[in-house]
Amino acid sequence: MNKAKPTTIVIFGASGDLTRRKLIPALFQVSLEGLLAKGTRIVGFARREKSHEQFRVEIEEALVEFTRSKPSAGSPELKVFSSSCYYQTGNYDNSKSFHDLKELLERLDKENGISSDKGNRLFYLATPPTVFSGIVGMLGQTGHIADPNDEERWTRVIIEKPFGRDLETASALNKNLSAILDERQIYRIDHYLGKETVQNIMAFRFGNSIFEPLWDRRYVSHVHITVAESVCVEGRGGYYDSSGALRDMVQNHMLQLLALIAMEPPASFAPDAVRDEKVKLLSAIPPIGASEVNECSIRGQYAAGTIDGKLIPDYLRENGVKPDSVTETFVALKLYVDNWRWAGVPFYLRTGKALAGRLTEVNIEFRQPPLALFSHMQEGEERSRMKPNMLSLRVQPNEGIRLSIGMKVPGQKMVLEPQDMEFCYQDVFDVEAPGAYERLILDAILGDTTLFIRQDEVEAAWKLVNGVIDGWASEEVPHIHLYRAGTWGPYAADEFITNDIRKSKAL
Ligand SMILES: NC(=O)c1ccc[n+]([C@@H]2O[C@H](COP(=O)([O-])OP(=O)(O)OC[C@H]3O[C@@H](n4cnc5c(N)ncnc54)[C@H](OP(=O)(O)O)[C@@H]3O)[C@@H](O)[C@H]2O)c1
User: Fold this and answer.
1) Ligand 1 pocket: which of 11, 17, 66, 239 to mutate (most atoms <8 Å of CB)?
2) In CATH, what number does 193-498 get?
């Protein structure tokens, strides 16, 4: 692993939820493990007034609550870490705030023995997306950005999701960023890519030789990708209502999972080799046009129900949600990949909130054997027990891999039933996996863009999702299926997928 260089990390939106729950704990954890260089500093920037000391107290409280290594309050490691944190109050449209920030950063460089204009900077945009362009514009205007070809210092900017709300706004944001930054300095984050088990998809596919020859239309019947959440909108009703499941989950996390599952093997593990293959894959998916939207998508919205004994209100009664909202809290999609490897293989994507459980899983169902050798020997229920082989890659929880294969049931008759060969991460590796933000922030400090999304990738994903958005918007009466909170989504989604699979098998 490369060694991290001393860096000043500036978090914009430092009084927010993401900073408190994820970013600060991730930075503490990597610092505890000795993965940050000596002299690394963290500067929080936000609009509300706060002293360095107040910020440090809040940081220590957040670390006790949210860090995976569970430090105790007042412990020396907390004090050491918080003493490397600073706070700057400022406004995003005020150049003086950015000049003040520059002064603070240069003072910290000086204390570290780094001459002025030689300090490395990682800017993390953890604010609402409405101010992303403005912040980068101000950074450019006030001289915070290093020349991308400067070999002595670097500037990198991590941009949080959502990256735009459609193709047009994403392209406009890309344009604004590239007016100030070189693509090598832009790190668009999708925290799903930082998850160990998502990276394991690449290890599984390209570090082994036995599955890859089966990984195509000749052997795979169809693929399911499921991202189920049991949480509701959790006080973020206003944001969620203007977004919905398609923008919030499919455009980023689910299409990234699909790209990793279906892309061609890259020529190397270099960032652009991997990202080139993902873009090629996303570009090979024909967008769903407005006229096909009913054939290829189901959208749903949760109604009152119970999850873990707790009563959940109708989505329409959540704070911040419009009472007549047609925003989807559930979506199922059918996509195809028009290339030689995957032509004709449906990929079913399904995601939703307020579902019966939290689960992220990819299921690859293989074709039936070409000859049903044993089926005439079994009847009724026995025959229905025979199932095609299924490979399941479980991203969360109980991360692992399961392969279901048909086995003979002991006895006089030739009866087959599916049995699982299973591998569970936790049982095999007795270590806690690093959190997604730990990995990704460290990668940004090390200058590794492999797990970040490139400009063309984000636009290819929006192109796909835009067709569905337009199709739904053109419906005179929105086709939205209600489902009870605490179930696995609308019945119509199961029916849509089951009927579709039945039809494609009959062909
Ligand atoms: N929270 C998560 O788990 C999560 C997960 C994935 C992605 N994200 C993304 O990360 C970013 C931050 O999320 P968050 O949950 O931390 O957001 P947040 O708590 O709503 O906001 C972060 C901070 O931004 C400032 N802010 C709020 N409204 C603003 C406005 N109109 N203009 C300028 N500043 C404003 C506030 O600080 P001041 O008022 O002090 O300036 C606030 O504390 C968002 O883009 C979000 O979509 C969050």
Assistant:
1) 17
2) 3.30.360.10
